[in-house]
Write a structure and sequence with these properties.
Number of helices: 5
CATH topology of the largest domain: Heat Shock Protein 90
CATH class of the largest domain: Alpha Beta
Structural class: alpha+beta
Shape: elongated
Number of strands: 9
Number of domains: 2
Order of helices and strands: HHEHEEHEEHEEEE
CATH superfamily of the largest domain: Histidine kinase-like ATPase, C-terminal domain
Radius of gyration: 20 Å
Helix content: 40-55%
Strand content: 15-25%
Mean pLDDT: 81
């Protein structure tokens, strides 16, 4: 219950803090513009006001999408289905998604966990550069399942590997990966970025042994061993 409340508190804090910041920007520029003659400078300020207004709209949509985090109890979620569902919604362009999860691989997580897979795809599309492929696979490391999402893009600089999980980092709302980490934490699942420099991004989601299973109607053990 405490974790659920913390996630909702995070969303509430995001809404109040970030929207208030953007409103301050809008009001500040409008005050300046009220005494300015027409010209290139006032046009620039108008664009800044418009950008701030769009960010507010984006943040409201974002919090609306995630307002149900923790409302429903965690349940068993099929990993292949999570990728397929997210792939249909993500803005991928010509990027190919390789879904290499063994059939029957399931994790015990909040129903909104599909948003984690969506955010990983969306993040790759926005920041991966000349990316062509996103690959989802699974490693069996001791008793844990490690879900791997990797791409062939530009990768994440070493100094940003933890910053990308902080709210407000990056463009747009900068909330996707921060909320993804919170959604996973509801089931004690962790996520980190461990890609090598210039080798593309590599997100590793570690699922504790009691939070994953191979469904009875799934394939036999085909999960690779981890390092």
């Amino acid at each position: 219950m405490g974790i659920k409340l913390s996630v909702r508190s995070l969303l509430s804090s995001i809404t109040r803090h970030d929207i208030n910041n953007q409103l301050t920007v809008i009001l500040g520029y409008l005050e300046i513009m009220s005494d300015m003659p027409p010209g290139p400078l006032i046009e620039e300020y108008f664009r800044k006001v418009s950008t701030a207004a769009k960010r507010i709209s984006s943040m409201i949509r974002f919090t609306k999408e995630y307002e149900d985090i923790g409302v429903s109890d965690p349940a068993w979620q099929d990993c292949r289905t999570l990728v397929e569902t997210s792939e249909k919604q993500a803005p991928l362009g010509n990027i190919k998604v390789n879904n290499e999860f063994p059939p029957g691989t399931e994790v015990f997580a909040d129903p909104l966990v599909f948003k984690v897979f969506y955010n990983l795809m969306d993040n790759a599309f926005r920041y991966g550069g000349k990316i062509t492929t996103i690959r989802f696979s699974a490693l069996f490391h001791e008793d844990d399942l490690v879900i791997v999402c990797e791409d062939d893009g530009v990768g994440v600089p070493a100094v940003d590997k933890e910053k990308i999980f902080e709210r407000g980092f990056g463009k747009n709302t900068g909330l996707g990966l921060a909320i993804s980490r919170e959604i996973l934490s509801l089931s004690g699942i962790t996520i980190n970025e461990n890609g090598g420099p210039g080798q593309g991004a590599r997100f590793e989601i570690t699922v504790p042994k009691e939070m994953w299973r191979m469904a009875k109607n799934g394939a036999s053990w085909q999960v690779q061993s981890g390092p």
